[in-house]
Amino acid sequence: MFNKILIANRGEIACRVIKTARKMGIGTVAIYSDADKHALHVEMADEAVHIGPPPANQSYIVIDKVMDAIRQTGAQAVHPGYGFLSENAKFAEALEAEGVVFVGPPKGAIEAMGDKITSKKIAQEADVSTVPGYMGLIEDADEAVKISQQIGYPVMIKASAGGGGKGMRIAWNDEEAREGFQSSKNEAANSFGDDRIFIEKFVTQPRHIEIQVLCDTHGNGIYLGERECSIQRRNQKVVEEAPSPFLDEATRRAMGEQAVALAKAVGYASAGTVEFIVDGDKNFYFLEMNTRLQVEHPVTELITGVDLVEQMIRVAAGEPLSITQDDVKLTGWAIENRLYAEDPYRNFLPSIGRLTRYRPPQEVAAGPLLENGKWQGDAPSGETAVRNDTGVYEGGEISMYYDPMIAKLCTWAPTREQAIEAMRVALDSFEVEGIGHNLPFLSAVMDHPKFVSGDMTTAFIAEEYPDGFNGVELPEGDLRRIAASCAAMHRVAEIRRTRVSGRMDNHERKVGKRWVVTLQGQEYAVQVNADRDGATVKFEGGAALRVSSDWTPGDQLAVLDVNGSPLVLKVGKISGGFRIRNRGADLKVHVRRPRAAELAKLMPEKLPPDTSKMLLCPMPGLIVKIDVEVGQEVQEGQALCTVEAMKMENILRAERRGVVSKINAGPGDSLAVDDVIMEFE
């Protein structure tokens, strides 16, 4: 076994590999750019080597710099994680020449299956059903449009060396094919150093289901079930689960056996993933093979008890698999939510900055366990597990140079319903401040009827949130639970205020029982009767809720019991009440005395400033190009400019007809959120 492994990556996946290496007694080496000098993976590793400036194409994907770090530290093997150099055959070749082991598949398998164009051709030759598309190299935008017309719109424009949604666009017409080709080509060059593009038919109602395979160098290969990855936004997975609520055992076996056969055909050895598109009749079509560890691998680990990183390291060390197909048993259900630094209220545009507060829910271990590769019985009924794979910490910065993922929050339970409920509570308990993030959206998905039923496709977000995400309207029952909780919490805060020392004589503060709670446009008159164990909140009309909690003023997380059911609230202070966040809703809750509530209704509402004639920068980023001039008339939907952030190019378009009166920024300018790019007459 190796004594020292270098992790050629950053962020949460580097931290994930370090955890397993530490468990195995293997020393670790981290590499870092200027932007990651104080990153968590650098702190966790036994050694760390600086490799260059923040941009990945000047640090993390420069093979020579990584090789220098290997020589400096004497690392015997390299784990590439995902992204960056993980599917780069030249990197694997450089390691082989240096006598360093690559913790991944042979370079021949990377070349054969890691390249999406080549893998499609191999699949076709092996009589594997594939999605219609053009596998050759595409020279320019004109050829891309011609090919798209031949295939038939809509089409998917993809980077051959791509991954994680980078260099990927859907085009519904010639104009979008032209624009998408150029943007995909630019993103592919910047992210992967490879700008080759291919085009395939975009199947509009598919489910995205992938099979995890594990092969060794002794000819053994197994599959470890499937992962449902249908909930995607901009072709990037957001929610994953294992197993899929859609597959039956026969389909699972057929997909698994085909995936293993495909892996063996190219001499694969390591963990890998074969992705399929599955239609409503359970027909499946090979999409691509990822010759690396997947982002969403934790859900497979949670239902199988297999540490995939450990297995990759053991295979790389030449050990045969200790697990047979008969040993693989899917136990319980696991769900993963990807927490991204992106603002759901601004159409999920990237958000960067400092994490002023970062408090994940407490991790809880449970689920199936393997001992010496053999099952040790079923998981105990009723147990749940919480796992959070992350690479950040409170006070750290989310950089504009890398992928915006903050963490992968996972829950496991014996049933899907229990796993979903555990995830709801975990999301409510996750505290993140300082940046925009998608926690509210994830909470909304966990409560969405389509997700709860398991009846979703890759079009889920586009169909259910066509106008973007604008928050959640909570039902009446939830509003009453929150209103009762806030009334009880407000009473606790009022009592504390009465105990402030140094009061003037004859100015003693009395805490009343009657309050009016307003939230989400609703008003509730309540009476709070408290005792040592909590408070009974009685609503006008007779209904009452019993609230108990150990919350104290200043706590930003309130864990309450309301009529015997748990309720977790994120709590912020506002004048006359609280800012409450729960289940995807962001509420201003005011708790006032009855007379104050009457007067509050007479106060005029403060209106936001009019920015309807301005184009505001929706996220921190760099202006790539300006597509219009002063005095030019623009039409609805016309491209105005392109802003690059988090390695993604975002085209900003006109919302309505108008005439450009002023342009305040140009190519190369770095802008903050809400900076005015241009103005209109």
Describe the protein.
By secondary structure, this protein is of the alpha+beta class. It has 17 helices and 41 strands. The strands form ten sheets. The chain has an eight-stranded antiparallel β-sheet. An eight-stranded antiparallel β-barrel has the order 26-27-28-29-30-31-32-33, surrounded by four helices. Strand 2, helix 2 and strand 3 form a beta-alpha-beta unit. Helix 5 packs across helix 6 and helix 7 packs across helix 8.
Alpha carbon gyration radius: 27 Å
Q: How would you write the strand order of the largest sheet?
A: 14-13-10-11-12-15-24-22
Mean pLDDT: 91
Report low-confidence residues grouped into runs of 5 or more. 369-377
- Tell how many strands the DSSP assignment holds: 41
Shape: globular
- Beta fraction: 25-35%
Terminal CA distance reads 69 Å
Helix content: 25-40%
- How many helices does DSSP assign? 17
Structural class of the helix and strand makeup? Answer: alpha+beta
Biggest beta-sheet profile: 8 strands, antiparallel
